[in-house]
């Protein structure tokens, strides 16, 4: 498995991940398809400028165009001040094979090695067993249940946090 920066040519993978009702069931529902070309271009620019880590998961380096999903760390403001947050998605045909866990672990290892991002937070939906499983299996600490806003919608989430230098399994 390899991680590479998102590029503008990843629009099909974005549509499959973000415009699909099943993939987005715990993220407030599907996003409009017509917004994806613009979204992927903006993400590619942010990733190239190293403002955020927005990575595509490539299961087999021999076929770099075949992507299994995405894993991201970015920083944003909250009412309690700026935080680093992590998110991930694995396409259905690649789920349940440990790829989500390996990709999240790989990006947190990079954060640890580069001493970047500080404490990393994640807010999976309380009912998303696989996503909470990813948190538990790489060493995130469970902090609390809370409501978070995503894409303008309020979601019931679990708040997890990890300090990669000390907590990564
Ligand atoms: C959540 C998601 C990223 C998980 O990726 P994955 O590659 O299928 O997960 P993995 O195979 O790496 O499993 C990670 C851990 O979760 C556990 N797990 C996986 N699926 C599970 C399930 N359905 N129920 C309970 N635990 C589960 C695994 O056993 C593993 O833990 P372990 O190492 O202790 O055994 C993926 O299912 C997905 O993208 N779903 C749709 C979109 C989504 O929900 N995104 C996240 C929003 S918060």
Automatic annotation (TrEMBL):
The chain positions of domain N-acetyltransferase read: 1-169
Q: Which InterPro entries match?
A: Acyl_CoA_acyltransferase (IPR016181), GNAT_dom (IPR000182), N-acetyltransferase (IPR051531)
What is an example of a Pfam family matching this protein? Acetyltransf_3
- PANTHER family cross-referenced by the UniProt entry: GNAT FAMILY, PUTATIVE (AFU_ORTHOLOGUE AFUA_3G00765)-RELATED-RELATED
Q: What is this protein called?
A: GNAT family N-acetyltransferase
């Amino acid at each position: 498995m390899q991680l590479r920066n998102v590029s503008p040519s990843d629009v099909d993978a974005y549509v499959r991940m973000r415009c699909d009702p099943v993939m987005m069931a715990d993220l407030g529902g599907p996003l409009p398809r017509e917004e994806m070309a613009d979204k992927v271009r903006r993400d590619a620019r942010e990733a190239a400028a190293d403002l955020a880590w927005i990575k595509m998961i490539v299961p087999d380096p021999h076929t770099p165009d075949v992507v299994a999903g995405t894993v991201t760390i970015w920083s944003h403001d909250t009412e309690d001040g700026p935080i680093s947050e992590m998110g991930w998605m694995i396409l259905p045909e690649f789920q349940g094979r440990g790829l989500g866990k390996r990709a999240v672990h790989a990006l947190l290892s990079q954060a640890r090695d580069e001493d970047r991002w500080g404490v990393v937070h994640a807010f999976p939906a309380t009912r998303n067993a696989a996503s909470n499983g990813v948190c538990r299996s790489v060493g995130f600490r469970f902090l609390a249940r809370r409501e978070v806003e995503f894409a303008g919608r309020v979601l019931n989430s679990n708040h997890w946090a990890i300090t990669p230098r000390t907590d990564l399994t």
